[in-house]
Amino acid sequence: MFLQIKAAFCGHKKEQSALELQLTEINDQEHHLMPELPEVETMVRGIRPVMDQAIILEVRACKCDRKPLSITPEQTEFFERVRKCRIEAVERLAKRIVLRLSSDDVIVFEPRMTGLVLVSDPPSIEHLRFEFRLSLKKSRHSVWIWDRRGLGTFRLFTQEEFENALGGSVLGPDALRITAEDLHCRLGKTQRSVKVAMLDQKLVAGVGNLYASEILHEAKIHPQTVAAKLSLKRVLRIHTAMNRILQEAITYEGSTLSDGTYRNALNHDGSYQNKHRVYAKEGTTCVSCEVSKVQRIVQSQRSTFFCPRCQRK
Ligand SMILES: [Zn+2]
Asked: Is residue 127 part of a domain?
C-alpha cells in the first residue's frame, strides 16, 4: 500500500483508462449515485476509529493533475489552522462529514458525486487529493481524500460560520432524527409532490434520489402524491419506512451502483444495491406484489421508480 500511495507524489500523469472514459460518458443524472445518508454514515463509521481523538500532524496535498477540489479558506491557511489540532468528534451532518477540532474550528467535507475518505488503498492513485497525517495513541495513521471528478468540497469554519452555513435555518432535521409529527408538519406546507419534497434538504436532510424511491415504495405511497395532502397516518408510514430503509442501508454499508464510485473507507463496495426493490428496476416485476412492473417517471429532472399497483394514487 505504501509504495502504491507514494507513487501518487511522483507526478506521472496517467492515461485516462478506457473504463474511466466510459464512465464520464454516462449521464450523471440517471446513473451516478450521489452519496446519501447511508453512504456518508458508512464513511464516518469507517474513519472514526483512526480520526476520533487523533492529533492532526499535518494535512498535505497529493500531486494531482485533475480538477482541484474546492477548499475554503485557501489551502495554506486551511492546512496551517488545522495542524496540531485534536479531532474531538467525527460526525455526519446530512450528506457531509464533520470533524470538530480542539481549536473550535470545524472541518466539513462534502463528497458530492465522487468523493471518498479512505484508510486503505485508493481505487486509483491519480485521484488522491489530500492526506491527513494523524497521531492516535502513539501510532501514526493516514486518512486519504480521493475524488475522481473533483466535485467534493472542503471547508474550515469557525463555530459561528458553521452555524450560519449549515445550521437549522439552512438544513432541516436529519432523516434519522426527525419525528413523524415534524415530518407531517413540514410536508404539510408544500404543494410539491412527496418525492420531490423529500429531496429538499431544508425539509428533511439526508435523503436523496435513490432512497426516496425505495422509501416511498416501502411506505406504499405514490411518488406524485401532493405532500400537503398526506394524512398523518400516511406520513407515519413514510417515517417508519424511512427509518427502516436508511438503517438497513447503513447495515449493508450503502449502495455501490454499476459506476462503482462509492466505496467504504476500506475501499470496498457497499452491498445495499442487492436489496433495492425499485431503484433502476424499470420493467422488472415488483418484488412486493409480484404482479405489476416497476415504472420510471421523471420528477424535477430526476428519475423516480415505483410500482403502480403497490403505490396507488
Ligand atoms: Zn408492486
From this structure: yes
pLDDT in tens, 142-192: 999 999 999 999 999 999 999 999 999 899 999 999 999 999 999 999 999
Question: What's the pTM?
Answer: 0.89
Catalytic residue among 92, 95, 129, 263: 95
Q: How much of the chain is helix, strand and coil, in % rounded to 5?
A: 35, 25, 45
Spatial separation of the C-alpha atoms in residues 9 and 131, rounded to whole Å: 11
Structure letter (DSSP) for residue 26: S
Those residues with Cβ within 8 angstroms of residue 94's Cβ, 6 or more apart along the chain or in another chain: 37, 40, 171, 174, 201, 205, 206
**pLDDT tens figures, 235-256:** 999 999 999 999 999 999 999 9
Query: Domain residues for 203?
Result: 180-276
* 122 catalytic per annotation: no
Nearest to 53 by CA among 122, 138, 115: 138
Active site residue 68: no
Q: What is the DSSP letter of 138?
A: T
State which of 134, 166, 198 marks the end of a domain: 166
